Protein backbone atom coordinates (compact mmCIF):
# COMPACT_ATOMS: atom_id res chain seq x y z
CA UNK A 1 0.00 0.00 0.00
CA UNK A 2 1.08 3.55 -0.74
CA UNK A 3 -0.29 6.90 0.37
CA UNK A 4 -1.58 7.40 -3.16
CA UNK A 5 -3.75 4.30 -2.64
CA UNK A 6 -5.35 5.93 0.38
CA UNK A 7 -6.11 9.13 -1.53
CA UNK A 8 -7.47 7.13 -4.45
CA UNK A 9 -9.75 5.18 -2.10
CA UNK A 10 -11.32 8.39 -0.80
CA UNK A 11 -11.46 10.02 -4.24
CA UNK A 12 -13.19 6.96 -5.69
CA UNK A 13 -14.70 4.96 -2.79
CA UNK A 14 -16.10 1.49 -3.36
CA UNK A 15 -19.88 1.25 -3.55
CA UNK A 16 -22.03 0.67 -0.47
CA UNK A 17 -24.54 -2.13 -0.97
CA UNK A 18 -27.96 -1.58 0.57
CA UNK A 19 -29.29 -4.05 3.09
CA UNK A 20 -32.97 -5.04 3.08
CA UNK A 21 -33.99 -2.34 5.58
CA UNK A 22 -32.44 0.45 3.54
CA UNK A 23 -33.78 -1.09 0.33
CA UNK A 24 -37.36 -0.99 1.64
CA UNK A 25 -37.03 2.69 2.53
CA UNK A 26 -35.32 3.53 -0.78
CA UNK A 27 -37.98 1.69 -2.82
CA UNK A 28 -40.78 3.53 -1.05
CA UNK A 29 -39.02 6.87 -1.64
CA UNK A 30 -38.98 6.13 -5.37
CA UNK A 31 -42.52 4.74 -5.52
CA UNK A 32 -43.87 7.86 -3.82
CA UNK A 33 -42.85 9.64 -7.05
CA UNK A 34 -44.76 7.12 -9.20
CA UNK A 35 -44.76 3.50 -10.26
CA UNK A 36 -41.51 1.79 -11.20
CA UNK A 37 -40.00 -1.59 -12.04
CA UNK A 38 -36.95 -3.49 -10.81
CA UNK A 39 -34.36 -2.49 -13.38
CA UNK A 40 -35.44 1.13 -13.16
CA UNK A 41 -35.05 1.05 -9.36
CA UNK A 42 -31.47 -0.22 -9.75
CA UNK A 43 -30.59 2.32 -12.44
CA UNK A 44 -32.14 5.18 -10.47
CA UNK A 45 -30.10 4.30 -7.39
CA UNK A 46 -26.85 4.18 -9.37
CA UNK A 47 -27.62 7.46 -11.15
CA UNK A 48 -28.86 9.51 -8.17
CA UNK A 49 -26.71 8.03 -5.39
CA UNK A 50 -23.34 7.37 -6.97
CA UNK A 51 -21.80 5.38 -4.12
CA UNK A 52 -24.80 3.12 -3.47
CA UNK A 53 -25.69 -0.17 -5.14
CA UNK A 54 -28.31 -2.85 -4.57
CA UNK A 55 -28.10 -6.53 -5.40
CA UNK A 56 -30.96 -8.24 -7.21
CA UNK A 57 -31.41 -10.53 -4.20
CA UNK A 58 -31.89 -7.62 -1.79
CA UNK A 59 -34.03 -5.64 -4.24
CA UNK A 60 -36.47 -8.44 -4.99
CA UNK A 61 -36.48 -9.57 -1.36
CA UNK A 62 -37.51 -6.04 -0.32
CA UNK A 63 -40.16 -5.85 -3.05
CA UNK A 64 -41.54 -9.23 -1.97
CA UNK A 65 -41.61 -8.08 1.67
CA UNK A 66 -43.52 -4.92 0.72
CA UNK A 67 -45.94 -6.83 -1.47
CA UNK A 68 -46.57 -9.55 1.15
CA UNK A 69 -47.09 -6.83 3.77
CA UNK A 70 -49.78 -5.21 1.62
CA UNK A 71 -47.85 -1.96 1.16
CA UNK A 72 -47.33 -2.20 -2.59
CA UNK A 73 -49.03 -3.94 -5.48
CA UNK A 74 -47.77 -4.93 -8.89
CA UNK A 75 -49.06 -5.51 -12.39
CA UNK A 76 -47.56 -6.29 -15.77
CA UNK A 77 -47.39 -3.29 -18.05
CA UNK A 78 -45.76 -2.34 -21.34
CA UNK A 79 -43.22 0.43 -20.83
CA UNK A 80 -42.57 2.76 -23.79
CA UNK A 81 -39.14 2.15 -25.29
CA UNK A 82 -38.79 -1.28 -23.66
CA UNK A 83 -39.34 -4.59 -25.40
CA UNK A 84 -41.35 -6.82 -23.13
CA UNK A 85 -43.84 -5.84 -20.43
CA UNK A 86 -42.39 -4.99 -17.02
CA UNK A 87 -43.69 -5.82 -13.58
CA UNK A 88 -44.62 -2.39 -12.30
CA UNK A 89 -44.83 -1.65 -8.57
CA UNK A 90 -46.86 1.08 -6.87
CA UNK A 91 -47.86 2.01 -3.34
CA UNK A 92 -51.34 0.86 -2.37
CA UNK A 93 -54.01 3.30 -1.30
CA UNK A 94 -53.81 3.96 2.42
CA UNK A 95 -50.04 3.42 2.66
CA UNK A 96 -48.76 6.79 1.47
CA UNK A 97 -48.38 8.32 4.92
CA UNK A 98 -46.41 5.37 6.31
CA UNK A 99 -44.39 5.23 3.09
CA UNK A 100 -43.45 8.90 3.48
CA UNK A 101 -42.29 8.17 7.02
CA UNK A 102 -40.10 5.28 5.87
CA UNK A 103 -38.83 7.23 2.85
CA UNK A 104 -37.71 10.02 5.17
CA UNK A 105 -35.53 7.46 6.97
CA UNK A 106 -33.81 6.79 3.64
CA UNK A 107 -33.30 10.50 2.96
CA UNK A 108 -31.98 11.09 6.49
CA UNK A 109 -29.60 8.15 6.13
CA UNK A 110 -28.19 9.40 2.83
CA UNK A 111 -27.75 12.94 4.17
CA UNK A 112 -26.13 11.56 7.34
CA UNK A 113 -23.73 9.47 5.30
CA UNK A 114 -22.77 12.47 3.15
CA UNK A 115 -22.20 14.59 6.25
CA UNK A 116 -20.12 11.85 7.90
CA UNK A 117 -17.97 11.53 4.77
CA UNK A 118 -17.26 15.27 4.68
CA UNK A 119 -16.01 15.43 8.28
Structural class: alpha+beta
Q: Strands across the major sheet, in which order? A: 1-2
Backbone shape: globular
Radius of gyration: 16 Å
| Helix-residue proportion | 55-70%
What is the CATH class name? Mainly Alpha
Please tell me the overall pLDDT: 92
Which percent band covers the strand fraction?
Answer: 5-15%
How many β strands by DSSP? 4
- Low-confidence spans: pLDDT under 50, at least 5 residues? none
Question: If you consult CATH, what is the topology?
Answer: Arc Repressor Mutant, subunit A
| CATH architecture descriptor | Orthogonal Bundle
| Main sheet record | 2 strands, parallel
Write a concise synopsis of the structure shown.
With about 120 residues, this protein is α+β, with helices and mostly antiparallel strands.
Write the topology of this structure:
Layout: H1 3-11, E1 16-17, H2 20-31, H3 38-48, E2 52-53, H4 56-68, E3 72-77, E4 86-91, H5 96-117
Parallel strand pairs: 1-2
Antiparallel strand pairs: 3-4
Pick out its properties:
Arc Repressor Mutant, subunit A; alpha+beta; 5 helices; single chain; globular; two-stranded antiparallel ribbon; 13% strand; 56% helix
Structure write-up:
By secondary structure, the chain is an alpha+beta fold. It has a single domain (17-117), classed as Winged helix-like DNA-binding domain superfamily/Winged helix DNA-binding domain (Arc Repressor Mutant, subunit A). Helix content is 56%, strand content 13%. It is built from 5 helices and 4 strands. It has helices spanning 3-11, 20-31, 38-48, 56-68, 96-117; strands spanning 16-17, 52-53, 72-77, 86-91. The strands form 2 sheets. Strands 1-2 form a two-stranded parallel sheet. Strand 3 (72-77) and strand 4 form a beta hairpin. The chain starts with a helix and ends with a helix. The relative contact order is 0.17. The model has no long low-confidence stretch (mean pLDDT 92).
